[in-house]
Structures are given as structure tokens and as C-alpha cells.
Specification:
globular, 71% helix
């Protein structure tokens, strides 16, 4: 019998071969034939220009070269400007892909890696929430999670949000395991996508500080400080340049938050209505943060789930590709539905296929050209918000009984 170390090496080799085979197959069948990975191309091109040629990723010259690669010309006013709207340390995610100039290879490898990220996000969300499905139900769920419209869109676009979703859920699982340095470090990395980290970071830091788990905010501060300062060795003004890119980004992106869609976009209400609703949601969240300040992790997880959902209601910009962390509230619902005495396995098994079919049906019936409709942003966050209101009491009762 092979020793444990040898078995691990063999398993790693087999996994690497499987990954290489998947990437090679995707390149042959898809990425070398179909234009895609738009959201990956921009940070990849900007990062590689910085690393290889010393070009400022925020410079007009870099933006113009990306626009010409994407559009075949400079971008017109009102079009997506294809500028590098990430913090400089987002390069950590794209530097490995600078080993080649062939984007079809980059896209194939990234697509394979992002698929692994989706599965890993589901695994960590399952661990953090304590959901324990049967093997067949777990495999069934993974298949439909990948087929969900928001997941598939994130994969096909090559959205870095897929990786950030994994990091966010990993931070929650690290908190669950009391691996506080890892949790704080992961929280710092989630700021690669500030619109996704907008609420979760302050909520978790406040809860951790109240729990006197000082390593969480300590690790967050150290890692974020390093992420901000180290790029300044090569780009002293990157922070100012990035903030300017963010200002421009909010000017040409078409859709805002779910609250904006439901008020301004759908009803034509003045901006003051959106502001009032957003303030009310933030006030509610602040109240829940205060109420949960002394709660153990399993009870605080309901607050974390609420935070992840409300992010889509209050962030100035959101996207369907940012829905990955919402597996946390979804799996909490599944755990409650499958608690002893309930065992609504058939309902759990039906929910994900129904969500996948409906999300694709909504996209296909509302898409204009290649632009998704604003209404694709609404159903999943809204449904989960309503479900969380129902979930609160049974979840608290469940985790108290389990402790």
C-alpha cells in the first residue's frame, strides 16, 4: 500500500493531468474558435503590459491599446471603455497568465481554473453552513450551480469575481475554523473587487473585534497595507489613478444597484427615493450587526448571509457575475429544509434546476443584442432576501440545537 505522502503526490499529478486535459480540450473546441473572455482580457492585457514592458496599466496609452484589441478602434463615448478599473494588486490574479501572449491559451486555462473556483466555492460554502447533503444530491447541486446563468456568465466572460467569490467564502470558512490570520488575509484580498467587499469587510471586522479575535483585523490591516504599498514601488501614484478610473467606470456602466433598478429604472422615481431606501437598508443592517455582535459564528452566519445579499441592494454598481457568494444563504436554506423532522430533499433537489432554467429564460427573453437586461440582477438577490427573513428563526433554533 502506498504511503500517505505518495498517495497525495499521485493524486496531485492526476489532478494536474486532468486540469491540463480540460484546458487543452477547451482551447481546441472553444477558446481558439470563439471570441470570449472579454472581462479577463482587460486586466490580463493591462497587467502583462505593466510586467513585461513597464507600461502604466492606468495610462491612456494602455487603455487605447486594449480598446483597439477589443473593438478594432478607440471606444466611442457611451461604450464600455475597456480601462483597467481594478486596484493594482489585482495583478496577483493575472500575472501567471502573462507567460504566454496567446489569449486563446490564457482563456482556456483561466476558464478551467475558474471552473475549479466555482466548485471550491461551493465546497467551502457547504462547510461554512454545515449543510450535509447525500452524495447524489451534492453532485446534482454542483452540476446545476455551474449551469446557473450568473455562474455561466462569470465563467464565459472570465470574470475575476469568480475568484473573489471563492476568497470571500474562504474568509467565512476560516472564521468558522478560527483560522483568524487566514480570515483577515482573505478579507483583504476580497478588496480586489471593492463592490463585492463593500459591506462584508466592515461587518466581519466589527464582529471580530467585538469577539476579541484581534488577529482578524490585524491580518487584514497588514495584508491590505502590503497590497497597497508594494505596487507603489513601481507605480507611486497608482491609488490616485485607480480612483480616477473608478470615477469614470461609474459614468459609463449602465446599471446600478438592485435598489436603483427597482426604483429609478423601473418606476422612474427620483434619485432621492433610491437614496432613502438605501439608507434604510444600511440602517437595518447596522441594527443587525449590533444585535449579532456577541453571537457565535454559526448564529453570526445569518448576518453574514444578509450582508452578502444586501451588498447587491446598496453597492453603487453590481453584476450578475458577483452572485457567487450567495451560495452561503442558499446552502443555509438547504440545511434548514433538510433538518431532522423536515427532510424536504425533493424540494432542495428541485430548487437549483428551477433557478437555472428561470435565470436563463429571463436572460434569453430580455437580452438586447449582447447586453443583458437590468432585470437579470433582481430575482436572485430579492428571493434570497425574502428567504432570509423567513430563515432567521429556524436557523437560530437549528444552530442552537446543534451546539
Amino acid at each position: 500500500m502506498l504511503r500517505r505522502g505518495a498517495r497525495l503526490v499521485l493524486a496531485a499529478l492526476l489532478a494536474a493531468l486532468a486540469f491540463a486535459g480540460l484546458a487543452a480540450g477547451l482551447r481546441r473546441a472553444y477558446t481558439s474558435r470563439v471570441l470570449g473572455g472579454y472581462d479577463l482580457y482587460i486586466p490580463w492585457a493591462a497587467t502583462c503590459g505593466w510586467v513585461k514592458d513597464g507600461r502604466d496599466p492606468y495610462s491612456p496609452q494602455t487603455t487605447l491599446s486594449i480598446q483597439e484589441a477589443v473593438y478594432g478602434r478607440p471606444a466611442r463615448p457611451g461604450e464600455i471603455q475597456a480601462d483597467f478599473a481594478y486596484p493594482a494588486y489585482a495583478a496577483l490574479l493575472t500575472i501567471p497568465f502573462c507567460l504566454t501572449d496567446d489569449f486563446s491559451i490564457v482563456y482556456a486555462v483561466a476558464l478551467s481554473a475558474f471552473l475549479v473556483c466555482v466548485v471550491a466555492t461551493a465546497v467551502l460554502a457547504r462547510r461554512a453552513t454545515g449543510w450535509q447533503p447525500a452524495s447524489w444530491l451534492w453532485i446534482w447541486s454542483l452540476v446545476w450551480i455551474i449551469l446557473l446563468y450568473p455562474t455561466a456568465r462569470g465563467l464565459l466572460l472570465g470574470q475575476l469575481a469568480v475568484v473573489v467569490a471563492l476568497i470571500q467564502v474562504a474568509a467565512l470558512e476560516a472564521l468558522h475554523r478560527r483560522q483568524d490570520i487566514l480570515a483577515g488575509s482573505a478579507l483583504a484580498l476580497t478588496t480586489i473587487k471593492p463592490q463585492m467587499a463593500l459591506l462584508l469587510v466592515p461587518v466581519v471586522l466589527f464582529w471580530s473585534a467585538w469577539q476579541r479575535r484581534w488577529r482578524v483585523p490585524g491580518a487584514f490591516a497588514v495584508v491590505l497595507g502590503l497590497l497597497v504599498l508594494i505596487p507603489m514601488i513601481w507605480l507611486p501614484n497608482w491609488l490616485i489613478s485607480w480612483l480616477e478610473e473608478l470615477r469614470q467606470y461609474t459614468g459609463y456602466t449602465e446599471f446600478g444597484s438592485v435598489t436603483w433598478i427597482l426604483t429609478t429604472h423601473a418606476l422612474g422615481a427620483p434619485a432621492a427615493v433610491e437614496a432613502v431606501v438605501t439608507f434604510a437598508l444600511l440602517a437595518w443592517l447596522a441594527l443587525e450587526v449590533w444585535r449579532a455582535r456577541q453571537a457565535p459564528f454559526d448564529q453570526m452566519l445569518w448576518l453574514a448571509a444578509l450582508t452578502l445579499v444586501l451588498t447587491h441592494f446598496v453597492s453603487p454598481r453590481t453584476a450578475t457575475t458577483h452572485f457567487g457568494p450567495l451560495l452561503v444563504p442558499l446552502f443555509m436554506i438547504f440545511r434548514v429544509l433538510q433538518r431532522p423532522g423536515e427532510r424536504r430533499t425533493a424540494l432542495v433537489a428541485a430548487l437549483l434546476p428551477a433557478a437555472a432554467v428561470l435565470s436563463w429564460a429571463l436572460f434569453l427573453t430580455t437580452v438586447a443584442g449582447i447586453q443583458e437586461s437590468a432585470w437579470n440582477y433582481v430575482p436572485i438577490p430579492l428571493a434570497l432576501l425574502l428567504a432570509l427573513l423567513w430563515l432567521r428563526r429556524p436557523w437560530m433554533r437549528l444552530v442552537k440545537e446543534a451546539s
